[in-house]
Amino acid sequence: xxxxxxxxxxxxxxxxxxxxxxxxxxxxxxxxxxxxxxxxxxxxxxxxxxxxxxxxxxxxxxxxxxxxxxxxxxxxxxxxxxxxxxxxxxxxxxxxxxxxxxxxxxxxxxxxxxxxxxxxxxxxxxxxxxxxxxxxxxxxxxxxxxxxxxxxxxxxxxxxxxxxxxxxxxxxxxxxxxxxxxxxxxxxxxxxxxxxxxxxxxxxxxxxxxxxxxxxxxxxxxxxxxxxxxxxxxxxxxxxxxxxxxxxxxxxxxxxxxxxxxxxxxxxxxxxxxxxxxxxxxxxxxxxxxxxxxxxxxxxxxxxxxxxxxxxxxxxxxxxxxxxxxxxxxxxxxxxxxxxxxxxxxxxxxxxxxxxxxxxxxxxxxxxxxxxxxxxxxxxxxxx
Length: 384
Prior knowledge:
This protein has helices spanning 2-25, 340-360, 366-380, and strands at residues 28-31, 34-37, 77-99, 104-111, 116-121, 132-137, 145-153, 162-171, 185-188, 191-194, 234-256, 261-268, 273-278, 289-294, 302-310, 319-328. By secondary structure, the protein is α+β, with helices and mostly antiparallel strands.
């Protein structure tokens, strides 16, 4: 019986270790645990507290005291803020609207430092007379967040606009491309402008904000930015980010006729411009690429970068899909997290000590302990 207990314990340790690692990297959904609002119809029913936890009105539709409603109907801009237990890299936000939906005009995330990040903005308008789940995908904010603010234009949808619940779905590990294994902050542009643009509705500078939506595809896509004319000469694009960091690297996602970039600059908080890289335009293979620029020249925090292109030196339309800014909050290298293999090595070491103790205190029969020692020798031959 004692022998079986040892075997079960060993297997359980390894299974548990693998399960914990797997869950840690998976997305999970959280429901709000705190709530405040610009106003509320009552202190009990229809209060902000009614938006806590899982839905208890949805999928039903109608005026219900178990949902939040502002103090008055048709009363301009109103908001509700929801807090969650854990800060996560948010994949999406879901808002359960159960009476007169459609008044939402803005959704913002709040990170651990208290900074606000806009992830969606639009116009209010009636969304029918059924309950709905309004889902907002986060393609911009690449830092952990644990609070959401929902802003409503109550004049845009007549009647009481009620929200039953709000959830966020995300993970503890960054899902963003080029972010895996980075020690620092990975950000995608939240704003952009350029010297020119091909059209007012497509190929605009705003197409460079957020995550890549063309890469790794190659070709002329209207969800990337391009200048007003091809082969026109010098053009520039500026990208803005939510947090000033000490820049480690800039990744430019070029998705059509790459190679026209001749200068990359960062603009610090005082407005001063610093050259990170400067070179000659070069025609590159006709395939999408990530043009990575390591910063070894500038040691001041920045959240504003500028790209200069010579479009006349790389024929055709030179298109940029997205620009990723990678940096740290301080000049001191952040403490490196212990990886899964190192954790496994630590567990094996502890297991070896337990076997030694078992031998010394005769906690199991000799043959069984010899088998465990052989397992340890086999494990020790694995390179971590």
